[in-house]
Every structure is written in structure tokens, then in C-alpha cells.
Design a protein that fits this description.
about 40% helix; 5-stranded parallel sheet; 6 helices; alpha/beta
Chain lengths: ~160, ~160, ~160
């Protein structure tokens, strides 16, 4: 199928990232091309697990990074999070109904050659170097996002 | 008009559901075809009022259902909810300016033959059978959503 | 470039408004036509600074207006707001990395002839007259939004 899906993932929440990655996997399985542009909180979805903190970051960037989830599975949910209890409950319900976790959908998207773009401006504000994000992520500007979106058949802001 | 609007309603909040249903009603009045795919929290928007709880659900699903709004009019708002006070205030302001309630826009969409799709994966995780949702809702998979979205002129993620 | 971007800004948060206006500025720089339809909380993004409150508003509308941010720079952020500390932290990080503020991107969009539409229904509910919004904002209905969206190449709900 000669069709394209373009997602702008602005949110850094477990449930919204799950929605984005389920769409991305489904579209690839149907033969569509898929690009995801991660911006702002969305960068937290593609943070590389276990990465050592950078020494070039400012005090605020250091504080920001230490206060935010370290990897996809640690993200909070957008509703009823209750300091993390809601996220654990959602994960339990997903396991009980035999569903993969966010990490699995993320790995699936990586193996299925979904294109991962990371917003340059957001990286600079938050102090995330390309090395701190998953290997597939390529730093891109808003113009690159717009060009890709213009060539796509579906564009969503998540 | 031979045009189509496709909405993915992920949010289960009063104000966002209102936005989605105002768009859906407006588009139908203009002669457009409209499909709404309800996923995750969005399922709460189309919960059938007064439905008795299912005995096949797990403990977590039972807890989840008892903690979440029972019908569209009970949904919280996404900002300034203040344990429900904000939602009541919004409803007051809507009434004072002569606007219909969410329930009315939902009924309008049902009467105007908007297509209601309910996400299969979300139903399985949350334990919602098709009988617990409004009669118009048909269980669909992410592939069905993508096919419909590909044939639409406007696609929004709400 | 004969292409169009259409944004429906429903959110009234600093970070989401920033995303919308960065997209709008970027698209104009690439020669695209840009329309932004501000609805619900989105009206708070284009509130005119220092405007005196209207005497025709109801008690609820008066309360609502006094409880909500008075201009774009006062908006909260959608995550980790911590009663405003998170927003201040974000602004610090933006300044440290040499980025313009939301106000600058808003002014940029105004100078670059982005079309500003304000949702009529939302204005009536919240009690915002056209005079209380930035001069560029024109009151429009949901039908106008849909017509513009149908003629656009990218449509996003933010």
C-alpha cells in the first residue's frame, strides 16, 4: 500500500504513547509508511534506558531530567494516575487481557522500520542530546515535520 | 457533499467529548459522512446509562468501572475540574447561553447517523462488552480505524 | 507553496499553545497558508492583555474570567505545572537555550498573516466578546472551521 501515516507525539504519557504506537504498528502491518515526530514531553517516550546524565546540561535541565520518567515504561497516565497507582492498574489490566506493554509496541515499531524523528527545538530546551534517545531517533526541525506531514495521508497530533 | 470526517476520540472528558460531538453534528449538517472511533478513555463517552455490571469482569476491571463516570453527562472536564465543581460551572454557563448539553449533542449524532466505532483492544483491557456501550457502537480494530481514516478528508485525534 | 495548514487549538496551556504557534510560524516561513481556529480553552491564548471586564457578562462568566489566565504568557503548562513552578522552569529553560517565548511566537504569527478564527459557541459560553480577543481574531462558527479544514492539506487538533 502506497499510503503514509504521520504522527506528532507531543504527550509523554503512558496511555497516549500507547495509542500512538498501536497506530504506528497497525499501519506498518497494513503496509503503510509511518513517521513519528516526538516533540516536548514526547521525547520522554524515546529516552534511552540507563543513559548516564550529560555533564553539559544546565542546572534546570539536570533538575528536569531527574524529575521526569527515565524510560517509556515509567511514564504516568493522563487520567486517574494517582501518583502512579493508576498506571500500575492499567498495566495489570493490559496483562490480564493478554496485551503487550508499551515497551513491546515501541520495540515493534523499531523493528518494523517506523521512522523516529526527534524535535530539535525541544531537545535544546530540555537538554536531550541525540545520544540520550533511542538509536533510531534522528534530530529534525519543524520544517522537516511539515514536509513529511504534507506528503502523508493521515496526520494526527497526540 | 461527498466529503468525510474521521475522529479518533481518545479522551473521556466532558469538554473534549463536547468538541468532538459538535464537530460531528456540524459536519453531518453540512452533508459530510462522519465516523468516530472511540478508544481508551473515549469509551466512557458512549457508556450505556444504567447498565448492570457484567459478572465476567476481573477484579481490576470491576474497580475501574466503579471509579469512572457512568455516562456522558458525568464526565469530568480537562482543566479546572476541582473535583467536579468546574464541570458544574461549565454546564451552568452552557445553559445560561442557551447551549445544548453533551447528552444532546450525543443524541443528535446518533440520530444523524454518525458512525460509532468502539476500539476492540480498549474494550478488552477495560472489560467493556459491546452491550455496555450505546447501541450504535460497533466493535472495530485499529486496522478498521486506519482504513476509514485513509478514505477521509479530515482526521483528528481528540 | 500552494499548501495549507489548519489547526484547531482547543487547549489553553502554555506548552500546547507553543507547539501550535511554532507549527504556524514554521508553515508560514515555508510559504504555506495557515488558519488557527481557537475554541474552548484555546480562547485564553488570544485574550487581549489588559482588557477591562465586560459589564454584560453573567456572574459565572465573571468568575470564570477572573480564575483563568489573563494573557498567553500566564498560561499554565499541561504537565508538572506545580502551581506555576513548572511553567516558570520551562520558561527559564527556553531562555537559557536562546528560544523565543510564547508571546513572541504569537506576535510572529500575527505579523506573518496567520488567520485567527475564534469559535462563536465558545465565546458565547465563556462570555468573551470579539473585543476581548486580539485584533486579528475573527468570530467564526464550526461550519467555517470545517470548510477551511476541508481545503487544507494538514489538519491537527491541539
Amino acid at each position: 500500500m502506497n499510503k503514509r501515516l504521520n504522527l506528532l507525539v507531543f504527550s509523554g504519557e503512558y496511555d497516549k504513547a500507547l495509542a500512538a504506537l498501536i497506530l504506528a504498528n497497525g499501519a506498518r502491518e497494513m503496509g503503510m509508511e509511518v513517521t513519528i515526530f516526538f516533540a516536548f514531553w514526547g521525547l520522554l517516550v524515546i529516552r534511552k534506558e540507563g543513559y548516564e546524565e550529560d555533564i553539559h546540561e544546565t542546572l534546570y535541565q539536570k533538575a528536569f531530567k531527574s524529575m521526569t520518567p527515565k524510560c517509556a515504561e515509567d511514564l504516568n497516565i493522563s487520567n486517574m494516575n494517582f501518583l502512579g497507582a493508576g498506571q500500575k492498574m492499567l498495566k495489570h489490566m493490559m496483562k490480564e487481557s493478554g496485551k503487550p506493554m508499551l515497551k513491546d509496541f515501541l520495540d515493534g515499531a523499531r523493528h518494523k522500520n517506523v521512522k523516529f524523528y526527534a524535535c530539535k527545538l525541544s531537545q535544546e530546551v530540555m537538554g536531550f542530546s541525540e545520544e540520550e534517545l533511542i538509536d533510531e531517533a534522528i534530530t529534525m526541525e519543524v520544517y522537516d515535520y511539515l514536509k513529511d506531514a504534507l506528503e502523508s495521508d493521515i496526520q494526527l497530533f497526540i
